[in-house]
């Protein structure tokens, strides 16, 4: 006798089939979409050129920066150069915490401009991302450049503030042509003892004649020149290749001031843009270097806006353990746009700010000034003279 197969009653079979049809189907959770990636690439003028000797600014390295979204700190990024129709790796780096990466690279290869692009490597769930190409010569030639190759200061420069200036905090110092020398391909700015006042000393005072120090010092002459009456520009990049004195007691600087700067009252437009101020490194005090913007007051000094200031650990921008600010030249620059300033040393970003932006043409200033507050830091007036050297200075207007 055959065994009969067990079967469900017709009604139960229909109910079970209905339950199966309406029961939710289980599957793997849907994956979140891959984030949209963006990259913005920018090429800058040749503003990276560390070295001990004077050099041709056209041989400085250009700077290529890129900003990625989303930010992925540590994500590898390649800088590629187009060569013989193919892309070849030129440099390697990694994104910082803000998704930025900076490269220095030749402006010309074989005497020709080149194309660069950046590529972020595939990282986690992010696929590889490349930028559009940029030309190394996008900024063109500088509108102003001086390489100080002659034997005298060029006609583009004027000597500044040739009087003792307690109103400006330099009661014991003044600008003087004798503190400015062009030779050997550099501009030498000096702090000298004033030979006309060697028989007397100076007690620093404020503008009202009130002493600001209990100590007296040698009267000083300072190297202090500008392009106030020959060249200014509005938006772009300004750069100077400089070397500073090791000693404290004076500060070397590259800075900008606005066209129409007033001498007898606050200037109600523009800004003082201190691209770099170097205050020395000795007497037990670490290197002090600053980049600062002093926006000029719109109506009164109380409205002045100051941005920036001393750099945190400026020695980290040196190229090596043997590099020194007084041993080698470095390029100090500011990129100035209608939206922001970006300060750099040999292409390395040191400060970025959208505050206090000047919307007025600005002229160039180079100086080695001995302000009253720092005179005692020299360690004795017998250490005069002191010197700062400028290899070249240049300005590129913002490309249109």
Question: What's the layout of helices and strands?
Answer:
Layout: H1 10-22, E1 38-48, E2 61-69, E3 76-83, E4 86-94, E5 100-106, E6 108-109, E7 112-113, E8 115-120, E9 129-130, E10 134-135, E11 144-146, E12 158-159, E13 173-175, E14 180-183, E15 186-193, E16 201-202, E17 217-218, E18 220-226, E19 232-233, E20 236-243, E21 251-258, E22 271-278, E23 289-295, E24 305-310, E25 330-336, E26 341-345, E27 348-353, E28 362-369, E29 386-397
Parallel strand pairs: 13-18
Antiparallel strand pairs: 1-2, 2-5, 3-4, 3-8, 6-7, 8-9, 8-10, 11-29, 12-18, 14-15, 15-18, 15-29, 16-17, 18-28, 19-28, 20-25, 20-29, 21-22, 21-28, 22-23, 23-24, 25-26, 26-27
Describe the structure.
InterPro entries: Beta-glucanase-like, ConA-like_dom_sf, Glycosyl_Hydrlase_16. Pfam families: Glyco_hydro_16 (PF00722). Residues 127-400 form the GH16 domain. By secondary structure, the chain is mainly beta. It folds into two domains: 38-135, Immunoglobulin-like (Sandwich), CATH 2.60.40; 144-397, Jelly Rolls (Sandwich), CATH 2.60.120.200. The protein has one helix and 29 strands. It has one helix at residues 10-22; strands at residues 38-48, 61-69, 76-83, 86-94, 100-106, 108-109, 112-113, 115-120, 129-130, 134-135, 144-146, 158-159, 173-175, 180-183, 186-193, 201-202, 217-218, 220-226, 232-233, 236-243, 251-258, 271-278, 289-295, 305-310, 330-336, 341-345, 348-353, 362-369, 386-397. Strand 6 and strand 7 form a beta hairpin. The longest helix is centred in the N-terminal third of the chain and has 13 residues, at 10-22. It is elongated. Residues 1-24 have low confidence and may be disordered.
């Amino acid at each position: 006798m055959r065994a009969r197969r067990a079967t469900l009653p017709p009604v139960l079979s229909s109910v079970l089939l209905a339950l199966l049809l309406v029961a939710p189907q289980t599957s793997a959770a849907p994956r979140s979409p891959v984030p949209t990636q963006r990259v913005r690439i920018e090429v800058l003028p040749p503003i990276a050129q560390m070295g001990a000797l004077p050099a041709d600014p056209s041989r400085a390295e250009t700077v290529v920066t890129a900003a990625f979204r989303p930010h992925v700190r540590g994500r590898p990024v390649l800088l590629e150069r187009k060569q013989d129709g193919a892309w070849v790796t030129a440099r390697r780096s990694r994104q910082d915490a803000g998704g930025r990466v900076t490269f220095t690279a030749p402006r010309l290869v074989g005497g020709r401009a080149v194309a660069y692009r950046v590529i972020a490597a595939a990282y986690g769930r992010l696929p590889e991302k490349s930028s559009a190409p940029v030309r190394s010569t996008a900024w063109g030639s500088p509108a102003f450049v001086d390489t100080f190759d002659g034997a005298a200061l060029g006609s583009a420069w004027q000597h500044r503030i040739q009087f003792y200036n307690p109103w400006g905090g330099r009661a014991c110092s003044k600008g003087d042509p004798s503190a400015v020398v062009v030779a050997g391909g550099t501009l030498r700015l000096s702090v000298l003892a004033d030979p006309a006042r060697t028989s007397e000393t100076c007690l620093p005072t404020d503008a009202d004649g009130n002493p600001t120090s209990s100590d007296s010092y040698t009267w000083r002459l300072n190297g202090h020149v500008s392009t106030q009456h020959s060249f200014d520009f509005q938006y772009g990049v300004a750069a100077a290749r400089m070397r500073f004195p090791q000693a404290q007691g004076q500060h070397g600087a590259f800075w900008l001031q606005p066209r129409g700067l007033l001498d007898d009252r606050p200037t109600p437009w523009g800004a003082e843009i201190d691209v770099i101020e170097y205050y020395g490194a000795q007497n037990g005090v670490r290197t002090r270097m600053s980049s600062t913007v002093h926006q000029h007051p719109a109506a009164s000094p109380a409205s002045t806006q100051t941005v920036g200031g001393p750099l945190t650990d400026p020695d980290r921008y040196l190229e090596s353990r043997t590099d020194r600010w007084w041993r080698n030249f470095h390029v100090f620059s500011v990129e100035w746009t209608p939206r922001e300033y970006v300060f750099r040393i040999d292409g390395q970003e040191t400060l970025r700010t959208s505050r206090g932006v000047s919307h007025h043409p600005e002229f160039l200033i180079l100086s080695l000034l001995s302000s009253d507050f720092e005179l005692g830091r020299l360690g004795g007036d017998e250490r005069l003279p002191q010197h700062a050297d400028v290899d070249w200075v240049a300005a590129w207007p913002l490309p249109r």
